[in-house]
Amino acid sequence: MTGLEITTAERPREGSMPVLETERLVLRAPRLGDAKTIATLANDRRIAENTARIPHPYKLADAKTWLESVNRADGEQTYVITLSGDVIGACGFEARDDGAPEIGYWLGVAHWGKGYATEAARALIDHAFGDLDFTALQAGARVTNPASRRVLEKCGFQWTGVGLYRIRAISSSAPIDRFRLERGIWASIKSWGAMRRALV
Ligand SMILES: CC(C)(COP(=O)(O)OP(=O)(O)OC[C@H]1O[C@@H](n2cnc3c(N)ncnc32)[C@H](O)[C@@H]1OP(=O)(O)O)[C@@H](O)C(=O)NCCC(=O)NCCS
Predict the structure, then answer these.
(1) Is the CB of 88 inside a 6 Å radius of any atom of ligand 1?
(2) Which residue lies with its CA nearest to atom 32 of ligand 1?
(3) 92 lies in a domain?
(4) Which atom of ligand 1 is found nearest the CA of 118?
(5) Fewest CB atoms within 10 Å of the CB: 82, 108, 142, 153?
(6) Is residue 4 part of a domain?
């Protein structure tokens, strides 16, 4: 047995993870077979410097380590984002001490600017509130990252303050904006959307 094989008992809990479908995307549990694609997509400084834990450069071994470690902890759900069956990025949420899980996401650079992150984040949020009954979600974005901030705003998140994140790729901490989405705000957005669709 090599170090890369995972026994059934150790295997990430793919079976307990739902598949989330949007108009254009499918979000599913990561698999070890995704390693090469993840390594290629994530090996970009613009991704690493805007996320807390992605190293740069990002090698195949990093992708394998990541794939072996995700979805082990209670309160964590990590998905790969697929488009027509191809992995284009990843997203998910993990538990935080204050009870509001924190969401995160990244996409391969070739896929930026097409609304995919917003579409994936909305699916994640609908799952978190609609299926899992969370009362609030939180998120953080570097102050130099307007695209991520905009994704959060389009999903209904509200700015709550500033903070610092340790960014692995720069071996330093960086200022971030903090955001929060309450379940009630999400419910209002959903019912307003349903009302608008009924009127047109
Ligand atoms: C942040 C990220 C996920 C956005 O992905 P995306 O699919 O391009 O996002 P979307 O297309 O859904 O939305 C991006 C929004 O930001 C806007 N935007 C992009 N660059 C911008 C900029 N420099 N200034 C202001 N707004 C900007 C877009 O116009 C769009 O808003 P709109 O729909 O109102 O026009 C992607 O850039 C990424 O992976 N970045 C690196 C990792 C990262 O930052 N992750 C988030 C960690 S908090």
Answers:
(1) no
(2) 150
(3) yes
(4) 12
(5) 153
(6) no
Q: What is the pLDDT of residues 141-174, one digit of tens each?
A: 999 999 999 999 999 999 999 999 999 999 999 9
Domain holding 148, by residue range, is 12-199
Quote the CA–CA distance of 81 and 27 in Å, as a whole number. Answer: 5
In the chain, the number of structural domains is: 1
Q: Is 145 in the pocket of ligand 1 (CB under 6 A)?
A: yes
Place of tokens 């997203």: 91
Tell me, yes or no, whether 3 lies in a domain.
no
Q: What is the pLDDT of residues 34-89, one digit of tens each?
A: 999 999 999 999 999 999 999 999 999 999 999 999 999 989 999 999 999 999 99
Which CATH number does the domain housing residue 64 bear?
Answer: 3.40.630.30
Distance between CA atoms of 190 and 150, rounded to whole angstroms? 19
